[in-house]
Amino acid sequence: MAKWRQRVAHELSGDTVAGLSEGNEVSLFFDGDNAYEAMLNAIAHARHFVHLEIYMFLSDQIGQTFAAALAQKAREGIPVRVIYDAIGSSAANAMQWAGMRDAGVNVVAYHPLGIARKHAGIPGRNHRKNLIIDGTSGFTGGMNIGNPWSQEQQRENAWRDTQISVHGPAAGDLNQLFLDSWKYTTKETLPDIDITPPSHGTSLCMVVGSQGLGSRKQIRRLFSVHLDQARHSVKMTMPYFVPPRRLRKSMQRAAGRGVHIAVLVPRDSDVTLVDWLREGLYPKLLRWGVRVIEYLGPVLHAKTMVVDDSIAIIGSNNFDILSVLMNRETALVVFDDEVAEELNRQWENDLMLSERVASDWKGIRPWWRLMMAKAGCFLIRKL
Fold it and tell me: Considering just the CA atoms, what is the radius of gyration of the chain in Å?
């Protein structure tokens, strides 16, 4: 392991679940249907437990398919536990949860809605998208469970996202995050089943997980450490780009010492307010020499980062204030040149549907959007 990678791992180790793990086998998914097929296959072959911690679990075709798979596994006598975010999954049909519970799935809502309910109305969401099978296999990334990520269901309008599977010790680290969320949500301490995962892979991994309100440093340091340690390049794909002041300073320092920073963001995301806030940052980013690129294809939802073409980061966390200050998030840091190269190839594919933001970017915006960008610039200075 190169010395500079060792520095990154050392700097980040205190913010990870269990430090650096060896012998992991990882696979990337850029197509929702392929990711869902692998996830459903893993559920079907579970022998000890299935743990799902998810922000958005819909009741459409994909959601019903997963609900049926989880219910079937529970009927087989395998413990199945699901934590869904009450706001992220608010569009789900209550009958879906009832059917899963009837089959034996233990389903709980994170920060449920309703004044009289425990933990209700508390700011901060469970934004994770983690599936863990037996503590030996896991999935994380940006993909929720629903039709928007399926090309079979949405055709050319399917969301562009990235998911990663991991087989090995890092899956056990993902499970530790689930156990913590389960205890917070239910007050029940689950036994940590000691299962030695197979060690077939060669990837070194670190799992970073934030615990929501009151636990602010993990995701911020995930970004700041990599920006501070980067030697020549940082490529970020981020759908929601509204970083707080400390992360903006990290970007400025990195760009100032000659690191080539490129940020791929959607021109029009699914959250319009975020677009206005992000555009308020464009003047500064361009002045610092940051290369800003706008994705013009379907909804961009991937949250990835490649540092020096050697470190890959895939997770649920955005480069924004909610991920840094409020939400439960997960990121998998992979020290593997081949994984970084695969992300870089997808980056090049995404650039084919993108356009670089130039100094005259204001010329292609309507006047009202420029006014909103100015308001966004004012608001961001306060954060």
Answer: 20
Say whether 307 sits in a helix, a strand or coil.
strand
Supply the mean pLDDT for the chain.
Answer: 90
| Tens digit of each residue's pLDDT (9 = 90 or more) over 184-199 | 999 999 887 767 666 6
pLDDT > 90: what percent of the chain?
71
Calpha distance 329→55 (Å, rounded):
10
> Can you tell me the distance from the alpha carbon of 81 to that of 99, in angstroms, rounded to the nearest whole number?
14
d(CA 76, CA 315): 31
Nearest to 192 by CA among 207, 211, 177, 204: 177
Q: How far apart are CA 132 and CA 157, in angstroms?
A: 28
Calpha distance 167→269 (Å, rounded)? 32
Give the mean pLDDT of 38-52.
97
* Residue entry with tokens 């579970």: 46
Single out the residue of 296, 227, 297 nearest to residue 262, CA to CA: 227
Decide if 27 contacts 164 (C-beta within 8 A).
yes
Residue located via tokens 């890959």? 312
Closest CA to 313 of 337, 338, 331, 328: 331
How many CA atoms, within 13 angstroms, populate the side-chain half-sphere of residue 32?
Answer: 26
- The token pair at 212 is 């929501």
DSSP code per residue over 223-271: HHHHHHH-SSEEEEE-SSEE--HHHHHHHHHHHHTT-EEEEEEESS-S-
SS3 212: coil
Which of 59, 40, 58 lies closest to 50, judged by CA?
40
Among 328, 239, 325, residue whose Cα is nearest residue 278: 239
Pairing of strands 80-85, 50-54: parallel
Query: Residue 156 gets which letter from DSSP?
Result: G
- Give the number of other Cβ atoms within 10 Å of residue 274's Cβ: 20
C-beta of residue 20 within 8 angstroms of C-beta of residue 13 = yes
Residue-wise pLDDT for 110-150, tens only, equals: 998 765 455 555 668 999 999 999 999 999 999 999 999 99
pTM of the model: 0.93
Label residue 171 by pLDDT band (50, 70, 90).
very high
